[in-house]
Design brief:
The complex is a heterodimer. By secondary structure, chain A is mostly helical. Chain A contains 13 helices and 2 strands. In chain B, the strands form 2 sheets. In chain B, strands 6-7-8-3-9-10 form a 6-stranded mixed beta sheet, sandwiched between helices. A 4-stranded antiparallel beta sheet of chain B has the order 2-1-4-5, with helices on both faces. The chains are: A mainly alpha, B alpha/beta.
């Protein structure tokens, strides 16, 4: 038993390094998507103290809109632009109709409001696009579908090209967001708002503009993850689940931390794959990916309640 | 001047607001009035009446002090002007606030910042996780006059506060109280303001540092022509640096006058500066005296 837990998995890893790399690669692909979604959560949380329960359904809604528009005969690239437009309108409507009237209410009320948004979007998506599964328009978008074969250590490593594309796009988006947050006026305003609402108001930062902006960013993130995940698993309301995978990422990385979201996402993605292949399947009969991340997050929470990278609470005495 | 409330105004309010508008016997007063607050009443949470008719005016290029003890309504007055009351469930229910001849009530705080009125809040309120320089840059958020102008002003702020230049790369949360106060004032300066509403800059600072900060405020006022409305508990320091002062007591202005006169006024000396030339007074006298003062106001 001990041998199975502590020795055999590592022996396996070293015996077939190419397979280990394959596992890590697949972990990286899902990890970077988790990280992206978690970033969406973090941005909205930091700027408005709202835990955005609707992030998951926004992924579904973006993917559905994209596929739905294409089904109406709109060229694929224009579909992307239109979907971005829809996500922007959604951000404006949410700010005007939901957030603005609720300013200053307790956090829990705003959280409940996002559950309301979730239910509304589920209904709206079903009415407009129907509830049946759809196929992501991968090829039409020009995403390559072949695979790349590499031969590290004399073994075989298969990288699917759409995964490579997803990783590159997601990484670019993450880097772009980081630059945006740290180097631009608007990005600084978002971070300032996260630190001190009143002070942000006092220097003339407008809550409304920032809120629309962060919800729109969350919408862009939803679209990118929707495409990437939809290309692997098809477009259906089940896609929402990927957003819940971002919850343990947030617990691990801390709700406030942008770096935490990125590192937490990558860690969870890779660790859950490693655990599934080397421990889960041989010892527990597989399918550990559904719960592993949550258990890991619980263990982290026991020892570091603010998460591994939660923003240090600066307290002067 | 006509009372803003029209005929519905109570007699005392009319008298109050008219008293405010009489020309002030000070050298500064030939200048135009920037900000005029007429008889405002502020209610928090629909029930708590905090300001009961406060009127004051801020002349261009002056330092106007708003003095009074805890809970007198200084901060509320400033927030009513800068429109930060809303996020605290406060509301201006009566009176008017006029900036450059234009009513600025119920405007977005951002709009006021663009008009040149910015508040430095009590307790500094720096953005803790941003560096000092980033904090300063957020002050320029509403500006549209290009990077070069903003950079120039950043240098200007560093000239006034050399200490901030040394700490520019550290997170504001890790700087000292004095540095945070400088950072907050510097941040306000970055918006190229015409009027700064400065709330309690002396809070929690050593006397020496208070002196230094007030000195900088004075030189900003003189060199950049920025007007200040300064809420302060430290009456002694405030009256030395200000040109004109208003004294608030439980939501009303009980006295006003040029700073030099207020400093010599026996009541102010006794109540706010802790000095009296008649020696110790019996508590009974003080009480009746105070009561009379309140009625007068």
């Amino acid at each position: 038993m001990l041998n199975d837990i502590f020795v055999a998995p590592f022996v396996d890893m070293f015996a077939a390094p190419d397979f280990l790399m394959q596992v890590l690669w697949e972990g990286l692909v899902s990890g970077i998507l988790y990280a992206l979604i978690a970033l969406g959560f973090v941005l909205i949380y930091r700027s408005s103290r709202i835990f955005n329960f609707a992030q998951g359904i926004m992924v579904v809604f973006a993917a559905l809109t994209l596929v739905g528009l294409h089904a109406m005969g709109v060229p694929a690239w224009i579909c992307i632009l239109l979907t971005l437009g829809v996500m922007f309108v959604l951000a404006v409507v949410i700010e005007r109709v939901v957030l603005r009237p609720l300013v200053g209410q307790p956090d829990i009320i705003l959280f409940m409001a996002t559950i309301g948004i979730t239910l509304f979007l589920i209904g709206l998506g079903e009415i407009i696009f129907g509830g049946e599964n759809k196929v992501m328009i991968t090829e039409e978008l020009g995403i390559p579908t072949g695979s790349v074969l590499l031969e590290p250590f004399g073994g075989l490593l298969i990288l699917e090209q759409k995964d490579i594309t997803a990783v590159i796009v997601a990484a670019l988006l993450v880097v772009g967001l980081l630059i945006f947050l740290n180097k631009t006026r608007m990005g600084r305003a978002i971070r300032a708002l996260g630190d001190d609402h009143q002070a942000a108001l006092s220097v003339g930062i407008s809550l409304q503009t920032i809120w629309v902006l962060v919800w729109f960013i969350a919408g862009i993130i939803a679209l990118v993850t929707g495409i990437a995940w939809g290309a692997r698993a098809g477009v259906s309301f089940a896609l929402e689940v990927i957003a819940y995978k971002a919850l343990p990422v947030l617990m691990l990385g801390g709700l406030e931390s942008i770096t935490g979201a990125i590192i937490g996402g990558l860690m969870i993605g890779m660790l859950e794959k490693l655990f599934e292949i080397y421990w889960g399947q041989p010892l527990l009969g597989g399918n550990t990916e559904t719960w592993f991340a949550f258990v890991l997050a619980l263990i982290v929470l026991l020892f570091r309640p603010q998460g591994l990278f939660g923003e240090r609470i600066i307290e002067r005495v | 001047m006509p009372c803003p409330g029209g005929g519905a105004c109570r007699r005392r309010e009319i008298w109050n607001s008219c008293k405010r508008s009489k020309p002030m016997p000070d050298a500064e007063n030939t200048q135009e009035t920037l900000l005029e607050v007429n008889n405002i009443e502020v209610i928090y949470n629909h029930v708590i009446l905090v300001l009961k008719g406060v009127s004051l005016s801020v002349p261009k290029g002056g330092i106007t002090a708003l003095l009074g003890g805890n809970g007198a309504g200084k901060t509320t007055t400033l927030k009513a002007i800068s429109n930060l009351l809303h996020s605290e469930r406060g509301e201006v229910t009566k009176g008017s606030i006029i900036y450059r001849g234009e009513s600025v009530q119920d405007r977005d705080p951002a709009e006021l910042v663009r008009k040149g009125v910015i508040q430095v809040m009590e307790g500094r309120h720096c953005f803790q996780h941003l560096t000092v320089e980033e904090n300063l840059m957020t002050g320029a958020y509403t500006r549209r006059d290009g990077r070069a102008a903003v950079e120039r002003d950043l240098e200007m702020v560093y000239d006034y506060f050399p200490r901030l230049k040394e700490r520019r790369k550290s997170q504001a949360g890790y700087t000292s109280g004095g540095e945070q106060q400088m950072c907050a004032i510097g941040r306000a300066l970055m918006s190229r303001p015409e009027t700064i509403l400065l709330d309690e800059p002396s809070m929690g600072l050593a006397p020496q540092l208070v002196e230094q900060i007030f000195g900088i405020v004075k030189s900003v006022n003189e060199n950049e022509g920025v007007s200040f409305l300064l809420a302060e508990q430290n009456t002694n320091v405030a009256l030395r640096f200000a040109h004109y002062g208003y004294i608030l007591e439980s939501g009303r202005v009980v006295m006003d006058g040029p700073a030099a006169e207020l400093r010599e006024n026996p009541d102010v000396k006794e109540f706010y500066l802790g000095m009296s030339d008649e020696g110790r007074k019996s508590f009974r006298d003080v009480r009746s005296y105070r009561r009379r003062k309140r009625w007068l106001a």
